[in-house]
Design brief:
The chain has 16 helices and 14 strands. The protein is an alpha/beta fold and 409 residues long. A nine-stranded mixed sheet has the order 6-8-7-9-10-11-12-14-13. Strands 2-3-4-1-5 form a five-stranded parallel sheet, sandwiched between helices. Strand 9 and strand 10 form a beta hairpin. The chain is globular, with a radius of gyration of 22 Å. The two termini are 34 Å apart.
Length: 409
Amino acid sequence: MKLYKRENYLSKIRGFYNSTDIIKVITGIRRCGKSSLMQMIMDELIETGVKSENIIYINLDKKGFRSLTSSNELEEIIDSRCNVSGLKYLFIDEIQNINDFETLINAYREEGDFSIFITGSNSYLLSGELVTKLTGRYLEFEMFTLSFSEFLDMKRFYNIPIDANLSIELEKYIINGGFPGAMLIEGENNKLTYVRGIVSEIIVKDVYKRIKVKNKMNFDLILNFIINNYGMTISLSSIKKAMAKGGNNINTDTIAKYINALLDAKIIYQCDRFDMKCKKYLAGEKKYYLSDLSFCQLTNPDSRINYDHALENIIFIYAKSKDYHVSIGRIGKLECDFILKDSNLNYSYVQVAYTILSSIETENREYRSLEMIRDNYPKYVITTDYLLQKRNGIVHVNLMEHLNKNKMF
């Protein structure tokens, strides 16, 4: 099957296709499309004239390689495929399965005739030895599940009907999520079964095995609590109290350990709060967002959608995929949903709401915090409204239209 090209990520990596001194590290939650991205890169290399025998691809999650754990075994396999001259392109999928992979990969980098691409499904891939041995010698390219614009583009690519009313497509996106594999599965129950399998795979491979969870029931309670309270301000102590109300006494150290495991496995992302008057990050209370909204359907018995939090989650992940640094702004007693900082240290401020047309009080609530910010950086109110407001230079945009056009902030 022809692959839908994830141009947002390919455009970031293309300039490094032939770099032998930089290891290209592609990270992201399992099944977000890392293996497919590698295949897209290999296809583009062949289109430019690279011979297929100069491309070495090893997927350590596939049959024939799944039992590999030794770097010596992996080295033998790579060397058996290196009997060609010229620049070689080495692609290794899910490299965290190999012990001491950092030393091996660096050895091939130092040979000078390898352009190396590796993928991994968890944050600790970029911790420990990889950082200490290869600082300045690798670049991370983080992938996410499909954005709303990619969700629509992929439907067009595979001739899947798109409703003319983008609000309906937005609801489908919130319910079904953005895992590329789910796109080609028919039936919402089947899509949900697919996502449930992904979560089970992540929990087993990236959590249980790594941190050796002793009480799986307590871990599941924390996981479900975070998923069901995404986009809400919570702290370790508030989680502990919520657990205690249900008759489960879990100490804060254990809660912190489980949350860090979920962060490392890229099931959730943390968003820190920044006091704009004191110019410092606030300890304690944080918000957590989901790497994919489909997770909500797995744990929440309430079928109603919390649109405000869902839309916040969409904007948060979209901004991360565009390489913005994202934080939550506090201005006195008010809150700005997101402060976005790009690679050039330019800022923008974003408020997200389902609608501001329901009442003047709602409109004032969403605009007030932005109006208190005195600098001249762009300010946005993002809603699903098609009737757009004009107020004090703040840009009111329709979420579906803005993301469908793949716009920045």
